[in-house]
Amino acid sequence: MEKKLTVKTTELRGRALAWAVAQALHYEPLLLGQDDGSYAVIAHFKRGAGRGLGLFGPFDPTSDWLQGGPLLQQNGITVGATDETDPETQKSTARTVIPLLVSYGNDYLEAGMRHLVRVRLGETADVPVLLLPTA
Predict the structure, then answer these.
(1) How many CB atoms lie within 10 A of CB 86?
(2) Which of 40, 103, 123, 125 is the most exposed place for a label (fewest CB within 10 A)?
(3) Contact 93/82 with Cβ under 8 angstroms?
């Protein structure tokens, strides 16, 4: 079992964010070692109580619109550019009306996936240390 660390939703990015999205969607995220020493997130989708399991791979709705776009639509998340009055340094926003929240990211998918995690899991998520930036 991999060592995990609790991270603020606002600080999640890349594969750590993909892991948190998989958790928020009730998938079973798995790590797959890559030749370059990095890790990819593979999402193991649970259908019912232990039956009909299927494997998605690799899972990265933070950079793949074919994965992330439908999740935004299904969860009623609207994305757009920040306005200049926003105190955040991020470039993109994601919003929902119910609950009324705004989340930020460097691009639309990052903002949207952070928002999905925030709405479903709260202000923090537990992610494997191997997926976090070193430094």
Answers:
(1) 13
(2) 123
(3) yes
Percent of the chain with pLDDT over 70: 82
d(CA 70, CA 49): 25
| 83-110 tens-digit pLDDT | 655 555 667 888 877 778 889 999 999 9
Structural domain of residue 41, as residue ranges? 4-131
Spatial separation of the C-alpha atoms in residues 32 and 30, rounded to whole Å = 7
The alpha-helical segments, DSSP class H, found in the chain are 14-24, 65-74, 108-121
Work out how many domains the chain is built from and give that number. 1
**How much is the pLDDT for 91?**
78
Q: What pLDDT sits at residue 51?
A: 46
Phi, psi (degrees; rounded to nearest 5) at 74: -60, -25
CATH number at residue 29: 3.30.2120
